[in-house]
């Protein structure tokens, strides 16, 4: 079974949806965590595999599963800048204000990496701009540190 689970992670990374479906039908765990804690959904999202992510969600993948650092699929796409997948995750109930091991949120990642379309999407969906990490920093703090002027404008408008 363990090999099936590892093959599932690989197929999700490549977006090989037919293979993902077949491996799940053979008994692989749709919520398997690999050695870093990544699930097939986290891997599909992080690698911009929309159709695979959508199928995994529809098939019961845990949308807020986190890797061993506490990072969720929504955090990953907020860092990477995949707005369509962020929308898919949000539409399916992803936790907007979940925090990883250091207290970072998807909103903080979007602000830090200048993913301003995702920043707007998260805010419009109800993400909390006042949430702080373990150092007391907010998304606004991260936008300031990175010189993200557009992010500062967006976050200042909601504060």
Structure characterization notes:
- InterPro entries: Ankyrin_rpt, Ankyrin_rpt-contain_sf.
- It holds the Pfam family Ank_4.
- Keywords: ANK repeat, Repeat.
- The structure is a single chain.
- The protein has 159 residues and is an all-alpha fold.
- Helices cover 55% and strands 0% of the residues.
- Helix 1 packs antiparallel against helix 2, helix 1 runs parallel beside helix 3 and helix 3 runs antiparallel to helix 4.
- The protein is elongated.
- It starts with a helix and ends with a helix.
- The model has no long low-confidence stretch (mean pLDDT 96).
Total DSSP helices:
10
Helical content (DSSP H or I, runs of 4+): 55-70%
Question: Residue ranges: pLDDT <50 for 5 or more in a row?
Answer: none
Order of helices and strands: HHHHHHHHHH
Overall geometry comes to elongated
- Fraction of residues in β-strands: under 5%
Rg, alpha carbons:
16 Å
Number of β-strand runs: 0
**Which structural class do the helices and strands define?**
mainly alpha
Distance between the termini: 50 Å
Mean pLDDT: 96
Query: What does the main sheet amount to?
Result: none
């Amino acid at each position: 079974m363990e090999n099936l689970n590892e093959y599932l992670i690989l197929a999700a990374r490549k977006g090989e949806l037919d293979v993902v479906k077949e491996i799940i039908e053979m008994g692989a765990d749709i919520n398997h965590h690999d050695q870093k804690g990544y699930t097939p959904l986290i891997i599909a999202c992080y690698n911009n595999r929309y159709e695979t992510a959508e199928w995994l969600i529809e098939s019961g993948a845990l949308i807020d599963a986190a890797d061993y650092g506490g990072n969720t699929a929504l955090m990953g796409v907020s860092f990477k800048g995949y707005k369509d997948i962020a929308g898919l995750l949000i539409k399916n109930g992803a936790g907007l204000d979940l925090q990883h091991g250091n207290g970072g949120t998807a909103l903080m990642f979007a602000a830090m990496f200048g993913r301003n379309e995702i920043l707007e999407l998260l805010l419009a969906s109800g993400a909390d701009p006042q949430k702080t990490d373990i150092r007391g920093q907010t998304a606004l703090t991260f936008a300031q540190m990175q010189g993200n002027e557009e992010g500062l404008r967006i976050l200042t408008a909601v504060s």
